[in-house]
Write a structure and sequence with these properties.
By secondary structure, the protein is an alpha+beta fold. The protein contains 14 helices and seven strands. The protein folds into three domains: about 140 residues, no CATH class; about 100 residues, no CATH class; about 90 residues, no CATH class. Helix content is about 50%, strand content about 10%. Helix 5 crosses helix 7 and helix 6 packs across helix 7.
Length: about 350
């Protein structure tokens, strides 16, 4: 039954775009049985047939299951093939979680985050697997310049985010309070010295997913440079607000901080806004016309049923079956789980746009 269910999910995802939300259920079943080698051997051609863009929303969860090439189980091979395919066809959407896995853990108290260099040795299997994926991607001459640009940007973002404004004498007054107004970015920061004219999208540009996986250069604004000054948003963590100039001539204000709670709400909005319109419509269709959910109506109807006739209850629930109710509930849970999992894996390289 499990194999038949996965095969049917895979065929639906391959042949139609109307069931894209089922990718969550498909992956839940698939990954829950990672120790079934026979099942994973049969899944290999099915995974290859499903369009890669349908897996983009699960890039963080799939990347977290990466294992090095020394692991030869069918499950490990399927994950590596899929991540490699996602990074090759949707580099700007899936590179960040893989790069975050490759990074060396923070060393010491003074540095919260350090970047991987060619001499760094991965300290765990996932870091090794991520390094293997990126090294393999660099062999593709079409992607090499873009990967180099992404690595430069990620390293610069991490370096600048790790700077504690309150600990820099030039940013505080005699009382130790952070100065108000625009402050000058440290000249030694790679954000100023390295992040210039990179062939990658502005970090906060909402790049639509291209089912073809081409992403031509004219489909997004490139990073030109960053302004010399930044502002602070106040609060305990004093997040920094920087301005990126895009090749379209527009300034993009971005919030950067090492504190994930500051970015969590904006991250949730950014993540959920990337769901295809058809899926959002399907979610909204589970709502009743007056704005309350069907389950709320069902509960209130059940309460009224104690003092009213069955005919009133049937009329109130007309057109809604229990099966439809359960199906709508599962869809909401899948979306909520995907959002929560993605939030827990966000790294400092995620920037929040500032309006």
């Amino acid at each position: 039954m499990l194999q038949r269910a996965l095969e049917n999910y895979a065929r639906a995802l391959t042949e139609s775009d109307e069931s894209n939300v089922k990718i969550f259920r498909f992956c839940a079943l698939w990954l829950a049985h990672s120790d079934d080698d026979a099942l994973h051997s049969r899944l290999q051609p099915l995974l290859a047939a499903i369009p890669s863009y349908k897996f983009v929303f699960l890039a963080y969860q799939l990347s977290a299951r990466l294992s090095p090439s020394s692991h030869t189980s069918p499950s490990s091979k399927n994950i590596r093939r899929l991540i490699q395919r996602l990074c090759r066809e949707h580099l700007f959407h899936t590179f960040f979680p893989v790069h975050a896995l490759r990074e060396v853990p923070p060393q010491g108290k003074g540095s919260r985050r350090s970047s991987t260099t060619k001499t760094d040795v991965p300290k765990n299997s996932r870091a090794q697997a991520a390094a293997e994926v990126i090294d393999r991607l660099k062999t593709d001459t079409k992607l090499q310049s873009r990967i180099d640009g992404l690595e430069i940007a990620c390293d610069a973002y991490g370096e600048w985010a790790a700077v504690e404004v309150k600990d820099c004498p030039q940013y505080v007054d005699s009382r130790g309070v952070v100065k108000k107004g625009s402050l000058k970015i440290l000249a030694s920061m790679r954000l100023k010295t390295k992040v210039r004219n990179l062939p990658i999208p502005v970090s906060t540009f909402d790049l639509p997913i291209d089912p073809t996986g081409i992403y031509p250069d004219n489909s997004f604004p490139h990073i030109v440079n960053y302004a010399d000054t930044f502002d602070t948003a106040g609060g305990v963590h004093v997040p920094k607000i920087v301005t990126c100039l895009g090749s379209d001539g527009k300034p993009y204000r971005q919030l950067v901080s090492l504190s994930l709670p500051l970015l969590r709400n904006k991250a949730a909005d950014a993540f959920m806004s990337r769901f295809p319109t058809a899926q959002r419509k399907r979610r909204s269709s589970t709502r009743c016309s007056h704005g309350t959910s069907f389950r709320s109506r069902q509960r209130s109807s059940s309460t009224r049923c104690r003092n009213t006739s069955p005919q009133v209850t049937d009329s109130h629930l007309q057109g809604h079956s229990l099966a439809e109710s359960e199906r709508s509930h599962r869809i909401r849970c899948q979306h909520r789980s995907a959002r929560q999992l993605s939030l827990t894996t966000l790294r400092v390289s995620f920037f929040s746009p500032v309006s």
